[in-house]
């Protein structure tokens, strides 16, 4: 018995030592999306977190880490770009690759209900883990809102299908020991919030009360990274109204091209004494020791701020992509797509509610690199998939 007990103890210690603590961003952590910037200079970056394509090399990610940055890696789970190195693997799965994403000839929708997709996405997750990414962001989950799907497929993807898929993605990422962020689809937060470690939203300030949908998510101790496109002088009043007290770490860029230049938006500085960033009182953890089988998570936390349930059509944003990788940024309702030609990282954002698609082209807005004090940059490596709304 003593021998058996000793073996059990040793086995337990071995297991515990091999469960790596995955990184969990704190509320208020600053970030920058540099997915399309082939000349990204980490030595000048002030943000703590950086987002890049999941195919970014291990050496580059290690270099970013040496400057104290955390890296989020991007890829699309709801579409496939023709220039991707694994495109043929996707095309070989019967019924998986469907029609073209409107206005994006090099990108197609995926029927993620087809079982053959899971193995392909696990390979991408493992690549991100092996390259040293701290977290992943999976884009284009909003097929259930897209007219490309709803109005064309005989058996279109539904919101319920999306909830099942999102939970599987989160659990699988956690099984592999990596943090995962929910991209847009804020309307499904009540069903999937407990499964994700943080969230990324594009252009919520453009839609009344959309940013507020994340309030309960933030109250639960989870960070939300946001991005707004346009000129500060044109958006300031709206940003001050929509972000007040919500707790979203917002950045601003003049265009939807994901380059390094931009502004780390501090509402307490830009909006005055009546504004609260919503960060106080939150002490999110930087890492968590847990194995993730989050199926037991409280799905019952349907804190639906149903008042803001938008039935907007999916939107897509494009991002310029680096040679050999394209990345999409899903911009909610702002159908924009960050185009990045295959060798030009493209990122797309799909967002509900029809909106114009993003064209990649940045003009300096007050460099994120020069705004505020930020210690680390988390590099978000995304799979560039251009997203645009229908």
Characterization of this structure:
This protein is of the alpha/beta class and 390 residues long. The chain has 10 helices and 19 strands. The strands form 5 sheets. Strands 2-3-4-8-9-10-11-12-13 form a 9-stranded mixed β-sheet. It has a 3-stranded antiparallel β-sheet with strand order 5-7-6. A two-stranded antiparallel ribbon has the order 1-14. β6 and β7 form a beta hairpin. The chain is globular, with a radius of gyration of 20 Å. Mean pLDDT is 78; it is low at 7-19 and 288-390.
Show the helix and strand layout.
Blueprint: H1 2-17, E1 22-23, E2 31-33, E3 49-53, H2 58-66, E4 70-76, E5 79-81, H3 87-91, E6 97-101, E7 104-110, H4 116-130, E8 135-139, H5 147-150, H6 159-175, E9 179-183, H7 189-192, E10 198-202, H8 215-219, E11 223-229, H9 232-243, E12 248-253, E13 263-264, H10 267-270, E14 287-288, E15 317-319, E16 327-329, E17 336-338, E18 347-349, E19 379-382
Parallel strand pairs: 2-3, 3-4, 4-8, 8-9, 9-10, 10-11, 11-12
Antiparallel strand pairs: 1-14, 5-7, 6-7, 12-13, 15-16, 17-18
- Reading off the top of the CATH hierarchy, the class is best stated as Alpha Beta
Helical content stands at: 10-25%
**N-to-C series of helices and strands:** HEEEHEEHEEHEHHEHEHEHEEHEEEEEE
Query: Which CATH-level-2 architecture?
Result: Alpha-Beta Barrel
Number of helices: 10
Number of domains: 1
Give the strand tally: 19
Tell me briefly what this model is:
With 390 residues, the protein is an alpha/beta fold. Helices cover 23% and strands 21% of the residues. The protein has 10 helices and 19 strands.
